[in-house]
Amino acid sequence: MTTQTPLRRPARLTRMTVIAAFLWSLLALPIGLWQLLDPASGPYSNDLFEPTIPLPAALPDWIAPAALVAAGLLGLLIARARKGLWPLTALYAVVFGMLLSTVTPISVAGYLCAFAIPIAVVVVPVLLARGTAARLITAAAIAAVLIGLGVTGVVDYGAVAEFAKLLGGTMAGLSGYLFTQVWTVAGGAIWAALTLQLLLMRRDGEPQAAWLAPEHAVRWGRVASWAAFASALPYGLMRMTWLTPWAYAGGPIGEDFPLETRIWGLLLGFAALGGGVLCLGLTQPWGERWPFWMLPLKGRPVPPMVAIVPGAIMAALFTFMAVPMVALGIRQDALELVWAFPFYVWGPALGAATLAYAIRRGVVKTAR
């Protein structure tokens, strides 16, 4: 009788992913029961909910929530680090990440990133200043600029506060729906991560695939990072036209375009371009050691997870948004959504670049 060589796995990461998959499956039970018992106001009854592939109208309303409860129960059973389960975990990733998701998560992520830009402009210079005196002077200078913008009327802080209040109220009113949308996409990401880890498992002594070697990862990771950067350009550059008299957004925009809308669109565009630049950091020296302008940290190694965690999250989000975004563009006859948001390239490319970075930084161990 022969003994089977045990599988070698990234124990800590696999254990974390298994726990996440188990907890996600556990949450499916109350969410499914909520929709089943309260179909009129359940989280999937919101007018914004428009799944990529809707169920036939002839099916009873209870079918979908009952199937969700069943999926949660099955998920509790398959949330295990067993290599033979990868087809089921991959199926969960596709169904929840691409077929049941909507474009709501990427819209929320875009708005959050746009909000973060002005906050970062104010906070980051203070954090980068060296010494207490320099930070106080920097903070005072920024405060003076902000006060000056308000006094001269360049920025209407009252209107900004009113907009933030309105947006916050809207988000609060959609809290149940937004939670389930984030939960759905998070599930796709969790099951995709578990699938990848199961596929990367190997037995002791079994050689790893050649393309996973660090020297190979440097090459294909660089190509992937530039592809991800290029994917950020269409939307970002389209928004940059709003700085010119020839503003474009799926078509020319008239001169009476509201200033507040123009500013908001520019923030979204800068967020996209900034994200593209960060994609390049996965293969650049400043992605491994803090650059010179990060004065308190310059020259120190960048903790790998600082790049890997957000890179993996955004790669999963972009990949899962590819199908809903294309479907939305086709349904609304707005094909500019297809080329302006090439998530079908951006997500996989960013995922590959992040994996290559993790291999190079030693987070994903490979055979030599």
TrEMBL record:
Name the species this protein comes from: Glycomyces lechevalierae
What does the record give as the organism's lineage? Bacteria, Bacillati, Actinomycetota, Actinomycetes, Glycomycetales
**Presence of the UniProt keyword Transmembrane helix in the record:** yes
**Protein name, per record:** Uncharacterized protein
Q: Where are the transmembrane segments?
A: 16-37, 57-78, 85-103, 109-129, 136-160, 180-202, 223-243, 263-283, 304-327, 339-359
The alphabetical list of record keywords is: Membrane, Transmembrane, Transmembrane helix
Highest rank taxon of the organism = Bacteria
